[in-house]
Amino acid sequence: MPISSIAVGSPSEFGSADALRAALAEFISTLIFVFAGSGSGVAFAELTDNGATTPAGLVAAAVAHAFALFVAVAIAANISGGHVNPAVTFGLFLGGNITLIRGILYWIAQVLGSVVACLLLKLATGGLTISAFSLSTGVGAWNAVVFEIVMTFGLVYTVYATAVDKRSAGNISIIAPIAIGFIVGANILAGGAFDGASMNPAVSFGPAVVSWSWASHWVYWLGPLLGAAIAAIIYDWILIAPTTHEPLPTTDYS
Fold first, then answer.
1. Which pLDDT score is estimated for 252?
2. Dihedrals φ, ψ of 18, to 5°?
3. Integer angstrom CA distances of residue 236 from 80, 84, 125, 169
């Protein structure tokens, strides 16, 4: 799809009931996702008396994020598309699947949902620390950017392949929330030990605000946005085209 498909939208969208309902769905889904995901980290710290991260803790974080994202995407899919992530919204904007105006509404809703989730988590736990994303010892900022680019590329590519591509209608689109949750869980297992494996600027923003810790925070915006852009360009601009594969009629192989 050419770059001409990118749409700014109308300023009236800011007051559109449909757009506001969609933004509310994004807010709620992001809140649910961040509360469960960040909450798993707070629970691990509580159970281990703030001990060092272990392989079991990494697996627990991956499972919590995978399950929570599966639910968050599924419950918002019919209302907002279930982005739950500014990087996903950005990638879909580049493919002409959402207007700039609605994308801004989504971004606002997503980051607010994350901040509120972290505030509620801090309140519910009696003031326990909500740790911001940070780089592990020996991991440079640009190493982390590469991690975030690759992991977010995988996430947004999965979104396009299972939820956006019209050829995925049917069984593939039904499993889209599961596939999206699985790729995030798998990426946390791959990159969590190095930079926390955010893949989602909103997920990083909430803990940073609540803990007021901004060291290397830019990594968690630049990496995911670049990864989303690359996935959008490859899938929407190249793979979704009239010349791509068309499934054979069932009569041809039955």
1. 46
2. -65, -45
3. 19, 20, 43, 16
